[in-house]
Amino acid sequence: MNILVTLNSNYILPLKVMLWSLFFNNQYQNFNIYLMHSSISSEEIDDLQQFIAENGHELFEVKINEKYFENAPVLMHYTKEMYYRLLAYKFLPASLDRILYLDPDILVINPIDELYNTDIDDYLYAAAYHDIPVKEINRIRLRAYDMEAYFNSGVLLMNLHLQRERINEEEIYTFVEKNKNRLIMPDQDILNALYCKEIKKLSEIKYNYDVRYYYYNKILSNGEVGMDYIMCNTSILHFCGKKKPWQKNYSGKFYSLYKHYEILALQRRLKA
Amino acid sequence: MNILVTLNSNYILPLKVMLWSLFFNNQYQNFNIYLMHSSISSEEIDDLQQFIAENGHELFEVKINEKYFENAPVLMHYTKEMYYRLLAYKFLPASLDRILYLDPDILVINPIDELYNTDIDDYLYAAAYHDIPVKEINRIRLRAYDMEAYFNSGVLLMNLHLQRERINEEEIYTFVEKNKNRLIMPDQDILNALYCKEIKKLSEIKYNYDVRYYYYNKILSNGEVGMDYIMCNTSILHFCGKKKPWQKNYSGKFYSLYKHYEILALQRRLKA
To answer: Cα-flanking dihedrals φ and ψ of residue B185, to 5°?
Structure first.
């Protein structure tokens, strides 16, 4: 399976936890990890490469020259890394036709082969959306009145083949230029405003479970989607929001599970 | 390592979770699991034997004939199984000189070799005690005015050699007969009233962490003993109290961790 991650040095520890949980809960899979970045040091890359190899998988570095984005518009608090996820298809080997992008603030707790093998022949992406009220707010904010859903871009299955055919880099830059003041989460906003009709909907509970809404999801499902259900059926826990489980004073339903995986990721090597 | 468990059919699922967590977090150890019981069916024993073998370890059944306890006093809500832990030394092979008793409502999350190898040459047992106020209440209740601590008997390292020399079965029965109306947790009460001076104190935080008191322990330690500390240093989480994590509507800091281990225990086999 091809996995895409894009990040800077601050996220290397959570990336290791995410990857270890992915490897551990998908032990009969081989993973090729594509890391798109522009600023991670070669020592850090070597360390990551070793970590991934010791757990039986392979790292492919995709170093982006910032010059590539010389003429791309930028936003106040964001670097040009905001484009990496959307334009990954331009930098990845032409031989790849499918890749799964994963945020580093994720814990994989069950197999993901069904997710990876989702039929997306007619779609650019597959993703989950988190909430109907969220969609309404974003539809108005982004003036995308035909937006059908507001997808979360933290788990994004990509049809690279179709993206190479259909995605227009200039269209993205034009959209950013026009909407500069309205973009909050740039890549996610662009994804939704430009491509939401070409995104296949994934089950949020299975593949992008927002850990902040444990009680909300439990109540909404008349108690069905509780801890038992999640541990059996959810493959991807997503630690969305500002508070992260690797930071001090985090608290939450999945804190103990995350911290245990943190220790396992740092101490245990899985055999190939 | 020799591990002792004593239980009835109701605890087979939690026992599997406990054992799997023990095996998984102590992968370079060989475990001999001694199961003392009187009522578990041979089908259940076979299933358990297979579970333990598939994970690379060995089960030894120690079936107790109830006739053995024909003349032992009984308590209202308790069966004669209350004596098993205290009299295990009589039923285990004479070749064993050390064994670690573990309750089934436990999750092992780090290595236990240091615990197992604790020097107990001059002690009958090693155990942890949970709380000073608890000790005071129990000292008065059990009229054991020289009781120095009230130990929890859920994690109990046993010096079988010394027990064979020093423990007097009749003394236990006499104590039970005398204190019938005052015993709440019979084996733990007996252990404390008769032997508390011959118990080596273990670190509660490391080897018998009562999951109900997460905030209490965190505050008491000025924030030091939080999730980070526990995941690094604690080997044994003990799900004390009436509410158990395998039951519906449990809630607590370590719920997600427990339920994840439950799935792992049921689905994954560790190689020998």
So the answer is: -115, 90
Interface test with A, best of B28, B256, B259, B269 (most A CBs within 10 A): B256
Residues comprising chain A, all counted? 272
Q: What does residue A244 show for φ and ψ, rounded to 5 degrees? A: -115, 145
Question: Which residue intervals of B55-185 are DSSP H helices?
Answer: 84-91, 113-116, 132-141, 160-166, 169-179
In angstroms, the CA A127 to CA A150 distance is 10
* Number of helical (H) and strand (E) elements in chain A, helices listed first: 12, 10
List the one residue out of A82, A112, A66 whose CA is nearest residue A209.
Answer: A112
Residue-level pLDDT, tens digit, chain A, 272 residues: 999 999 888 999 999 999 999 999 999 999 999 999 999 999 999 999 999 999 999 999 999 988 888 878 887 777 788 889 999 999 999 999 999 999 999 999 999 999 999 999 999 999 998 765 666 667 676 676 666 678 999 999 999 999 999 999 999 999 988 988 887 878 888 898 899 999 999 999 999 999 999 999 999 899 999 999 999 999 999 999 899 999 998 999 999 999 999 999 999 999 75
- Neighbour tally for B200: CB within 10 Å: 18
Directed axis angle between helix A255-267 and helix B255-267, to 10°?
60
Query: Residue A231: closest CA among chain B residues belongs to which residue?
Result: B260
pTM of the predicted protein model = 0.93
Strands B236-238 and B106-108: antiparallel
Provide CB contacts within 8 A for A250, sequence distance 6+.
Answer: A243, A244, B227
Please state, as a whole number, how many other Cβ atoms lie within 10 Å of the Cβ of residue B220. Answer: 11
Which member of B227, B250, B262 has the closest CB to residue A255? B227
By DSSP bridging, strand A125-129 and strand A151-159 are antiparallel
Q: Which of B231, B250, B263 faces A260 most closely, judged by CB atoms? A: B231
The span from the CA of A139 to the CA of A126, in Å, is 19
Q: Looking at residue A144, what DSSP letter applies?
A: -
